[in-house]
Each structure stands twice: as structure tokens, then as C-alpha cells.
Amino acid sequence: MVTAAAKAAAEVDGKPATGNRALPRHVAIIMDGNGRWASARGLPRVAGHRAGVQAVRRTIETAASLGVEWLTLYAFSSENWRRPASEVMDLTGLLRHFLKSEIAELKAKGVRLYFIGDRARFEQDIQIDLGLAERETAHNTRLNLVLALSYGARAEIAAAAKAVAEAAKAGTLDPAAFDEAMFAGYLSTTGIPDPDLIIRTSGEQRLSNFLLWQAAYAELLFLDLMWPDFGPEQFEAALAEYARRERRFGARPG
Ligand code: FPP
């Protein structure tokens, strides 16, 4: 169902935006605040992460029904490995369960899955399920869902720079002809459009090593609510805010 807020987000000055410019093609989200959500309720942190998974489910459904083409979720950062072993186990356990329990449903809903990040750091069974999820959903076109797992932007950029240097050394790349678009081709997001809108929940206002190259022109939106409280209403309000910003920056004749 398309609500009034979503309709407003798809309009500029009350008229449909040309090519639906006001609707971001790619929304990326830093899902922060699970721990604080739990402690505010006297619950263990894992309860916050479980509630966070419910918010992930709602967000995927909302993105698909509103017509967002790409949704990237920062589910596990390369720095998250430094958390206490028990919390790392809780988070990887939730990921394992998510992959086992959701894939059939995502497949049925037309969602195509992609993963960016250092998947080799996860246990073997999770790595196998990540590959399976990509293959099983490869023909879907309704929503492209990118999960950033063990992801860090600096490591991604350094790996790309290393591959570029190796190609130059091997003589397969001409440094004189090298440009931004070619560099982007070495990143893990090659083929994925840059995010138009990056949302971070929890009130923190930073990117925390998320999509640093790709975020160059993204609109940033910092929300004062914890990730488990993010639902369709908040998503639609974020899209409406994005549409307002586009309207301010886009010079339209007449
Ligand atoms: C931040 O909350 C969130 C994370 C560390 C990861 C997000 C993970 C999920 C939403 C669940 C797993 C997702 C999938 C797809 C299975 P925080 O712990 O940093 O919260 P705090 O800053 O309040 O402590």
C-alpha cells in the first residue's frame, strides 16, 4: 500500500517528480542503538539485537513496497569483531538464523541478496549459506538487498588500491588512463549505484567506516530513535525528508 507520506515523497511541488527523482533509488542504513534500546527496558543486549532483526524484516518489506530499488543494511562492521565473544556469538547466531529462516521468503518476495565485506571471517557454514542466498535469489528484481557483513570502508578502499597497483605492475592497467569510474570498478560495490540517502539511527552523527567512497554525494539523515523502533512510518518520513532536500537543491525552471 502506498501511503500519503510515500506519495508526497514521490512528488515535487505536488506534481509527480520526473523519473520519480524524489524517491531515492538506493537507501543505505546504519542500524544503531540495539543495545541502548535493550538497556532502556532492563533487557540483555541480545534482546535488542533480536528486536533489530524484526526491524530489518519490516524495513525490507517497506522498501520493496515503496519501490526503492536498492537497500543496503550495515549489519556487522569489521570493528564489531572486537565486541565481547558472547555478543559476537549472538550477532553471528542471529545472522545464521536469518539466512536459514528468511531466504525462502525473500526469494518468494522478489528480493535479490548481495553481501559486501570480508565474508571469509565468518564460520564455514555461514559462508556457505551466504553463497546459497546469492545464488537462490539471483533472478529476483523487485528489491536489491545488500547486507554489509564484516564490512569496513577503509579496508575495502585499501584492497581496491592494492588490486589497482598489482594491475599496473602487471601491465594490464595504464595509470595515465585511470579515473574515478575505473577505481569504483575495483570496489565491492561495483555495479551497485551509489546510495542517495544514508540513514543512521540512535542519534549518533557519524558514518563509522560505512561506504566512505560511495557516500560522496549521499544525503545524510540522523534519526533520534533506536534501530528496533524503526518501522514503516519512520521510513516513509525519512523518504519525505529526502524529497524535501532534493526540492531545495534541484533548480527547476518555471
Ligand atoms: C548496533 O547496535 C547494531 C549492530 C551492532 C548490528 C545490527 C544488527 C542487527 C540489526 C541484527 C542482525 C542483522 C541481521 C540481518 C541478521 P549496538 O549494539 O551498537 O547498539 P548500542 O550502540 O546502543 O550499544
Could you give a short description of this structure?
The chain has eight helices and eight strands. The protein is an alpha/beta fold.
Describe this structure as you would to a colleague.
The protein is α/β, with parallel strands linked by helices and 254 residues long. Among the domains are: 22-151, 3-Layer(aba) Sandwich (Undecaprenyl pyrophosphate synthetase); 154-193, no CATH class. Helices cover 44% and strands 16% of the residues. The protein contains eight helices and eight strands. It has helices at 4-9, 34-40, 45-66, 85-108, 124-136, 153-170, 180-184, 232-249, and strands at residues 11-12, 15-16, 26-30, 70-77, 111-116, 143-151, 197-200, 219-222. The strands form two sheets. A six-stranded parallel β-sheet has the order 5-6-4-3-7-8, with helices on both faces. Helix 3 runs parallel beside helix 4 (85-108). It is globular and about 60 Å long. The two termini are 33 Å apart. Farnesyl diphosphate is lined by residues 31-36, 49, 52-53, 56, 75-76, 80, 91, 94-95, 98, 147, 202, 227.
